[in-house]
Amino acid sequence: MSWGFLRDLLSGVNKYSTGIGRIWVAVVFIFRLLVYIAAAENIWKYEHDEFECNIKQPGCENVCFDHFFPVSHIRLWALQLIMVSTPSLLVVFHVAYRENREKHHNQKLYKSPGEIDGGLLCTYLISLILKTGFEVVFLVLFYKLYNGFKVPRLVKCDIRPCPNTVDCYISKPTEKMIFICFLVATSCLCIVLNLSELSYLIFKHSIKCYLKRYIKKHQ
User: Element (H or E) spanning 181, and its range?
Assistant: First the structure.
């Protein structure tokens, strides 16, 4: 999979972000996207081939693998990365709209098209809420699909066409669990950064509105 579009998107968003938002971009790009491309893809590359059960009953291994891993970790992570990054497009589109509006009217309508105020502030806050929501949904989904974030060495399966309860072995469980914990931790860090930025922007806007009212009252 080519991740060039995501890299370009994150680079574009970085121009219009706050300081906290730039930290979020760095975390997503360095600790999630690059780790996914450089290491995680290779660890789970042959997960189906390396899943072994102590029985040669035709179809038994496939059914057991599908039961314990209904969705590939790696594909779910890829979907998560895409979903948590795309709300940032709302901000990019809004800035582009402002720039086109200024060109159309041939005059300066905003202090700066990329300044986070007015309608762009609302768009930015919505994008933060969506990103946080997607992060939480995917964490819950991971936990529910795989019964937690641990990777067992051995799982027992008694699903047909297996004739009885069989032992199935997962390859590289320790290495996989380390990466799962790392990616879950970075996901939680992104949630904290999103909530911090959301609180910061709301607080900043509230102070700004309060000062405007205060100045008007004492004029």
Answer: helix 173-217
Residue 197 clears pLDDT 70, i.e. is over it: yes
The tokens of 109 are what? 């309508």
Contacts of 30 (CB under 8 A, 6+ apart): none
Helix 173-217 with 118-145: angle, nearest 10 deg = 150
Tokens in use for 130? 């969506």
- For tokens 């066409």, the residue is 161
Q: What is the model's pTM?
A: 0.82
Structure tokens at 137: 């949904």
CA separation for the pair 180, 159 (Å, rounded): 27
Residue 133 pLDDT > 90 = yes
Distance CA(38)–CA(35), nearest Å, equals 5
Residues 6+ apart with CB under 8 A from 109: 98, 101, 102
Pick the closest to residue 122 from 214, 29, 205 (CA basis).
205
